[in-house]
Amino acid sequence: MNGQQETTANTPSEPKLCKSGCGFFGSNATGDMCSKCFNELRKKEGASAAPTAAQRQPPATSTPAPPATTASPAPLAEPAASVAAAAEVKPAAVSSPMKKKKKKKKSSAAGGGGTAKGTPSLKAEGRMLNEGSFTDYYVAHGQTEPPSIPVVDLFRGEDDAKNGNNNLPPFPEGEIQEHPLESNSHRISSAELRQAERLQSDLYSKLRHASEVHRQVRHHAQSFIKPGIKLVEMCERLEETNRKLVREHGLERGIGFPTGCSLNHVAAHYTPNCGDDTVLTYDDVMKVDFGTQIDGRIIDCAWTVSFNPKYDPLLEAVKAATNAGIKAAGIDVRLCDVGEAVQEVMESYEVELDGKTYPVKCIRNLNGHSIGPYQIHAGKSVPIVKSDDVTKMEENEIFAIETFGSTGRGYIVEDMECSHYMKNFHAPHVPLRLPRSKKLLGHINKTFGTLAFCRRWLERDDGGSFVVNGSRGAQEKYMGALKNLCDVGIVQAYPPLCDVKGCYTAQYEHTLILRPTCKEVLSRGDDF
Model confidence over 37-57: pLDDT tens digits? Predict the structure, then answer.
């Protein structure tokens, strides 16, 4: 508005229109003509005689002149406004495509950085895995290959659902089977029991979370477990993936127990100590047994790895026996009945090795077990042979159904160098005299609690948990202190369990929960 006021002050109060009829204002100095018309007139006069006024008059169809009552010189202000408008429009026209281009780039980047789902395509080299099993099955859930995203970022838990965060799918449910026995036939359709299950939804969510971590870790492990790999390298790689996918946080969530990789006649409880350079070979039969835990809820699951097809009947026998034990388990089922079902299936197989036929035997002094919070063996043992134990399974109990088959004598003893240890769940209060024992016990309490651990973890820079100890948790000169804790009954040693040398053993294991309406095989996957 200030510019308009100045222009009005410098112009005559009664301006005259150009007498040529062009519509612009004239001036006394140019004979009441605008400067344009005056210059054109002078050019014409220089070439010929000056035209008359009638000849200079424009035709009647020309644009009519604006009214003479205009208060301000609007036609003079119009060109300036038009220039300004053009100046504004021009940059807008240039910047508009740039803005669209930036927006397009941003949207495409956001799409590529999300958890894009893929198609599984990689097959494992191990034998006796189910047809159609892929080691990278987890890419269908938005996981990377190799897996690096914590499972909690791919699925939602019960707490997320309560807070209204429903953007992610829930943790996958395990395999559902009905409880055996005629007395349980009403359970699957009972509305009252379904309501009772809703009260346990938080427990089920934690178990399914730990189960999905286990599935993704073991599928990834199946991609790199090949002949020629060092067992210590295999265990460390598997455990690092486990820590990453469970988002390890001390006792709150992490590894359930050390990775077992028992070979051939060794049935269980072997993991390499530091300095053990054992290498997996084509003719080995290896039992891979590891666990995950969320708030102390442990998933215990194992399978057998072999590459030579001559061991297939052994693996098939143990796998079928484990499934028979799962089928027989249920609320009010006697433990002896589960063992009888396992033995009947297992010992119906035989395997031919180097021209000699061996019956597959159940390892009769190894059992499945119930699982409690931070307690891998919670009190009940599930036999794998016929017995007289009439203890019954109960509602909401969690069991690890595991079976072991052998071409040897079917009986194990403790042998070889010990690697597995665990603080007794009901450890007595014993005054310790050795300062190193006190220090080691303090480290065990805050890092592992009553969960199992191994010597290899004590020697890590973080002592078993970076969240708890940082990078200064490594224990030095601890063997004397560890032996002292075992001698006084605070810590229990679990040496490798071995059948006769030269034989071969196999193991399959799943964790299930006896829900009020059904049993859920939590750790079941498309692999076994």
Answer: 777 777 776 655 444 444 444
Exposure pattern of 95-129 as b/e (b: 16+ CB <10 Å)?
eeeeeeeeeeeeeeeeeeeeeeeeebeeebebebb
CA pair distance 491, 421, nearest whole angstrom:
7
With beta carbons less than 8 A apart as the criterion, state whether 119 and 142 touch. no
User: CB burial class (10 A; 0-12, 13-18, 19+) of residue 62?
Assistant: exposed
What Å distances lie between residue 201 and 197, 208, 432, 515, CA to CA?
A: 6, 10, 43, 11
Let me know: does 272 contact 311? Beta carbons within 8 Å.
no
Tell me how far apart the terminal alpha carbons of the chain are, to the nearest angstrom: 83
Give the tokens for residue 310: 């001559």
Instruction: Identify the segments of the chain with pLDDT beneath 70.
Output: 1-17, 22-25, 27, 29, 45-115, 159-165
Whether the Cβ atoms of residue 262 and residue 278 lie closer than 8 Å to each other: no
477: left (phi over 0), alpha (psi -120 to 50) or beta: left
**Residue given tokens 């609007």 in the structure block:** 74
What is the residue-wise DSSP string for 90-118?
HHHHHHHHHHHHHHHHHHHHHHHHS----
User: What pLDDT digit, counting tens, does each position of 96-110 carry?
Assistant: 444 444 444 333 333
Catalytic residue IDs? 289, 300, 369, 377, 402, 509
Beta bridge partners of 254: 293
Distance CA 336, CA 342 (A): 10
Of 387, 391, 390, the residue nearest 378 (C-alpha): 391
The reported pTM is 0.78
SS3 of 508, please? strand
**Which residue shows structure tokens 């890419």?**
139
